[in-house]
């Protein structure tokens, strides 16, 4: 069933979308595609773009963000998990391998290394044509909810192997932020407005509860206070008795 939508892109406007006919005409001007592309409205913010040609699909989806009539559209590949209020965390990103040996500037080797990051999609033109010996560059489909490695070991892990390996550094271009709480692309949990509101409410509730708390005495403390009060009362009675006795003695002496 999902095969029927494998070339479908969901475009999400950040503001209310223009009329559908304006979107369709502007899309054809921006992308001279080989096959056909059907654009349909999902709601006031989301559109579906269904391609018949895989190269057309890749050329648009790899852009990640496009602009139509001055409005930005975030692009994401359709998934059975698509939800109106969530962004799919699977995005295409350019991955760079600086200093990779020049003999490894081929799809065969780069694909194997890039598989440690995500799903390799395609080499860039300079890597494919071997016109930039300093690094290899490949577009990779990554999952923003998973850890993103900064290096990977290349070669055999067997110490006795004649082929020695090395640590390959990995760099990335423009990884979008993703909030695991909101499940939205564009910000992370550090600057999530929803989480900030929750934190503010929790702090206010904590302060209110602290103000309303009444200190409770333990049984030991209560008994101690009772003994001290009892001892104090006993001392007062003894002092009064002494004073009365003194008065009586003085009266007798007279």
Question: How would you describe what is shown here?
Answer:
It is a single chain. The chain is an alpha+beta fold and 254 residues long. Among the domains are: 8-77, Alpha-Beta Plaits; 90-176. It contains 6 helices and 13 strands. The protein has helices spanning 20-30, 54-61, 107-114, 125-129, 193-212, 219-253, and strands spanning 8-13, 37-41, 46-51, 65-68, 71-77, 90-98, 119-123, 135-143, 151-154, 166-169, 171-173, 178-179, 184-185. The radius of gyration is 37 Å and the shape is flat.
Helix percentage: 25-40%
The helix-strand sequence is EHEEHEEEHEHEEEEEEHH
- Gap between N and C termini, in Å? 121 Å
Oligomeric status: single chain
Tally of contiguous helical segments = 6
Q: Strand order across the biggest sheet?
A: 2-3-1-5-4
By secondary-structure content and strand pairing, the structural class works out as alpha+beta
Unreliable stretches covering 5 or more consecutive residues: 244-254
Largest sheet data: 5 strands, antiparallel
> Beta-sheet strand percentage?
25-35%
The chain-level mean pLDDT equals 81
How many whole angstroms does the radius of gyration measure? Answer: 37 Å
Report the count of strand segments. Answer: 13
Shape: flat
Protein name: DUF4283 domain-containing protein
Region (Disordered): 209-254
InterPro entries: At4g02000-like, DUF4283
Domain DUF4283: 2-86
